[in-house]
Amino acid sequence: MILVVLDHDGGKLRKSALEGITRARKLAESLGGEVAGLVVGPGAESAAEEARNYVSKVYLVSGPDWETYTAEKWAKAAHAAAQAAGARVVVAPASRTGRSWTARLAYKLDAALLEDTLDSWAEGEKVFATKYSFLNRVLEKQAAALPVVVSVKPNTTPLAEPAGAGAVENLSVELGELERKVEVLEKIVESGGKVSLTEADVVVTGGRGMGSAEAFGMIEEFADLLGGAVGATRAVIDAGWRPYSEQIGQTGKTVQPTIYFALALSGAVQHQAGMNKSKVVVAVNKDPDAPVFKEADYGVVGDIHQVLPAMIEEVKKLKSA
Amino acid sequence: MKYVAIIRQVPDGESKIRVDGGKVDLAGTTMILDQMDEYAVEEIIRLKEQHDGEAVVVAFGPERTEEAMRTALAMGADRGVLITAEGYVDPITQAAALAKVIGEEAPDVVFTGGQQADWDSQALGPAVAEALGWPSITWTTAFELEDGHAKATHDLDEGGEVVRVALPALFTTQQGLNEPRYPTLPGIMKAKKKEIKKIAAADLGVSGSKVEIVEQQIMELERKQKMIDGTKDPAAAAAELIKLLHEEAKVL
Amino acid sequence: MALDFSLTEEQKQLQQLARRFAREQVAPVAAENDEKARVPWELVEQLYEIGLLNISIPEEAGGLGLGLVEEVIIGEELGWADMGFYTIPMASELGIAPILIAGSEEQKKRFLGPLTERPALAAFALSEPGNGSDAAALRTRAVRDGDHYVINGTKMWISNGKEADFNVVFATFDPALRHKGVIAIVVENDREGVSFNKIHGKMGQRAAPTYEIVYDEVRVPVENRLGDEGAGFKIAMLTLDKTRIPVAAGSVGVARRALDEAARYSLEREAFGRPIADFQAIQFKLANMKIGLETARIYTLYAAWLADRDDPRHISASAVAKAYASEIAFEAANEAIQVLGGYGYVSDFPVEKLLRDVKLNQIYEGTNEIQRIIIARDILKALR
Description:
The complex is a heterotrimer. By secondary structure, chain A is an alpha/beta fold. Chain A folds into 2 domains: 2-180, HUPs (Rossmann fold, 3-Layer(aba) Sandwich); 202-320, Rossmann fold (3-Layer(aba) Sandwich), CATH 3.40.50. Chain A contains 8 helices and 18 strands. Chain A has a 7-stranded parallel β-sheet, sandwiched between helices. Chain A has a 5-stranded parallel β-sheet with strand order 15-14-16-17-18. The radius of gyration of chain A is 21 Å and the shape is elongated. Chain A starts with a strand and ends with a helix. In chain B, 29% of the residues lie in helices and 33% in strands. Chain B has helices spanning 35-51, 65-75, 91-105, 124-132, 185-191, 234-248; strands spanning 2-7, 9-11, 18-20, 23-25, 31-33, 54-61, 79-84, 109-113, 136-145, 149-155, 160-166, 169-173, 196-200, 211-218, 226-229. In chain B, the strands form 3 sheets. In chain B, strands 11-10-9-12-8-1-6-7-13 form a 9-stranded mixed β-sheet, sandwiched between helices. A two-stranded antiparallel ribbon of chain B has the order 2-5. Chain B is globular. Chain C folds into 3 domains: 9-121, Butyryl-Coa Dehydrogenase, subunit A, domain 1, CATH 1.10.540; 123-230, Butyryl-CoA Dehydrogenase, subunit A, domain 2 (Beta Barrel); 233-381, Butyryl-CoA Dehydrogenase, subunit A, domain 3 (Up-down Bundle), CATH 1.20.140. Chain C is built from 10 helices and 10 strands. In chain C, helix 3 (68-81) packs across helix 6 (232-268), helix 6 (232-268) packs parallel to helix 8 and helix 8 packs antiparallel against helix 9. The radius of gyration of chain C is 21 Å and the shape is globular. Chain C starts with 8 loop residues before the first helix and ends with a helix. The chains are: A alpha/beta, B alpha/beta, C alpha+beta. Chain B binds chain C through residues 30, 32, 67, 70-71, 74, 182-189, 191-192, and chain C through 9-10, 12-14, 16-17, 20-21, 49-52, 55, 64, 66. Strand 13 (182-188) of chain A pairs antiparallel with strand 11 of chain B.
């Protein structure tokens, strides 16, 4: 059995879940066995109903103990499901939370962790995967013997189509002392962006050259138009204009969207590390020698306060056409 | 009270990475204490300054990791323990060895960077916590020690949360938690006398690696570098850009 | 087996610290401080916080008691980032050196102790409007009056000057005695009669404060005199024999910066269908910069090593290092401008500043002509 842990947004399967199913199916083809899914937490019942259309069995873990996420709880649930399924491979999303609890799960299973993979496949009894390393500059091929936990990098894998109808099985997982050690006091809702940076197809990042926190209003407007997320450079964070959660770069987040807009930022190496695998990079800067232009597919030299509003108008025109 | 930071030595971000014979070749590359781990080291030194106790740095890596450890000691940590092993060892395997050493140290709290700049992995912290049987909180941006507990703010996938955690526990760090201090020259000289205990991983019953690195290659995407002049007519430049994105790149 | 060209672990860490500070804190503000001729006190404070300021102050006075090798390691890194800024801590060590050479234990504690307690600078006041190289012809007068000297005169081109806590002033109590009539005396800046005029319009090193100092009937206690009456000139020479070595280190830093900028640019700039780095004309320029900076660096470290051991060969070696390093650095900066072409000529790019800055390295702390006199004297002394 291959177990795939399916992230859902209050009952609706996320893109990452469908990517995970594709990966799990591919591994099941080579290693044999079927694909089982796991849904945990609030809304899991609806998620299970959707998931049963993709996998042969859905384990469901829910209840009052499972209303809030902690890494310890999710690792425990995944462990219980893996054992119930007799799974020697567990596939999970490489979201921030995913990368946190899958590490715990791998330790529990005494399994190899193939983390944040671009692709994964089996050859004989070994699982192979590719991932980036050295601040996204190196492509690495890794191999591990079973058991294996594979986490899937967002936006790397085709979304699975429904196939068949599986059964849903409630899995009762008792919380131990460890799983009760973290108490969630307060939720902090992200101000600004509504789309998750690491999952976004479009990221619009502003740098120090935007000039002020207020100028980011334009960036937010542009991002909204394109259904994208807002990013910021370290300089912008240091200036207090945007929250840490939007930082892209070596000590911030790494993103890999289809389009990355680098606006009014110079393009320091630390920033590049966070976005250099974007499919298409667009840069706008008033300095024709800014390093960012070397890392861009399309570069516009000009004043951001004139070019960006014009870009917004053009996108509006394109959308209405 | 005792505070531990797990650190890693990685190539300097400004260094060019070279590949030789299908593997990354770090010979001659400047190696530094990972920037993300610096937040962890800074935090344990602050806790020691505020609440007294001992600040200990622990690492798993080849012999040269000692240099990064000396940097942490020069910043103000009290002593270090280095588990030595040559070659690539995956985080899950490392966690077993680190947990043995940290378990014996019996600290109140452990910090480590959220992700390190060579393996690009976020797994070490949570795996060590699992091995110790402790809770783990990742991407911490604020931390306060209370009695037998810690209050922390950390990132989730979207937004964040404030948690109260029963100690001992492990926290992974990122920018925003603190401002790491530079080591000082007097610190560098004092660090010379501070203890770095070395233990071979094999002596802890840990050997090999669950994950093998089969091949590495430099992956730098070729960029078109197509330039548009928007200094005289920004509107026309914007129009051309959007047109190219729509018709040529086909991403809009 | 003794010859060993490696740094100790601590020296390597020192180099890493200095390099990081230079890259992260000094380099980003260098152009602005140069343009505005602004003294970056916040950088001086940071330098103090990380323990890189005034490192030669002995442990007995609360300092680190480090030597010229350590100063050279720091000097190359700070010189790489901004030679103008580096002149500030360098000139402070220049002001400390006479006290180390000729001061009593009590004087070392009295003058140097306070420099360890907060970010503070020393300075060295030898040159005057009418004499630089002809140091023995100095005219600042020190007249004995009971248990004080009364100082009258003007000093010129004094680095740090007003920004320092004190200047070590070289004054004559009897002009007829020429170099045998000089005293070295520590004059605190807040004594009555001391006034400062900042020198403006410098070609380069504009972050470094340079002053004309006027001493008008300034009363200074005899206890502030370093060494004996008549020993002042010797003290000045012994000081410069050592302190010119960090100047060489700063020059090496400038040369390295010139090479870094030129090499990087040559890979990015294209002409005739390829990066200009492919052309031999450019490659030869880069190679020449490298030849200069590698030889200057090793020789500067050698001179520092000799000086730290008080090996008499350091007198000539320091002169060789100082003259040579400043000359190869000037050449390197000049060629870097040439490689960058039009972009090398404008202040948007960092290379024109390198030339303006390092020119001074051929002039101050003993002109390169004076260095050659010292070297020649040493050659001939052995043969006479």
